[in-house]
Amino acid sequence: MSYLFALSLTTAILCGGWIIGADLIGLIGWAGFAGCTTFFAAGGKKSGFKSAICTNMSGVFWAMLSIKISALLGFPLVGALMTVVITFFLCIQSKIKLLAFIPGAFVGSFSTFAANGDWTRLVPSLLLGAVLGFLCEWTGVWLYEKMGKKEQV
């Protein structure tokens, strides 16, 4: 069994469990996958976990700020103006080490808009998605160590 096979198998099983569990407890299944994807895209391991959480949550913050300000101002094209403003902040915040993974901030932001601003369901879904990613990686490594063989080069 290769490492890729082990990781694929455990990821498939855990993701199947996630989608069932998310539905049962009223969370947003696809948003959990967004958090999981952010974890892997940020490099996995503990650093990818921290990065996924921090950047996804910052994206949610900026998107919610945009939604609230747009509703308050309510003039034509306010959405376009707020897109310019939050895009700037999603990028410039990368000067802060914990917020350096810009794609993670965009994932948090677009997920907020896709969830129609329902941050009370979105935030736990994204956070548990990062946990899901961590568990997928961890169980993949565990299975490979138990059942895998060194791959031939």
Distance N to C terminus: 14 Å
Number of strands: 0
Gyration radius (Cα, Å) is 18 Å
Largest sheet: none
- The number of distinct helices, counting runs of at least 4 residues, comes to 6
The helix/strand order is HHHHHH
Instruction: Kindly give the count of domains.
Output: 1
Q: What general form does the structure show?
A: elongated
Mean pLDDT: 95
Percent of sequence in beta strands: under 5%
The structure class reads mainly alpha
> Which spans have pLDDT < 50 for at least 5 consecutive residues?
none
* Percent range of helical residues: over 70%
Transmembrane segments: 69-91, 98-116, 122-144
Organism: Clostridium weizhouense
InterPro entries: DUF1097
Protein name: DUF1097 domain-containing protein
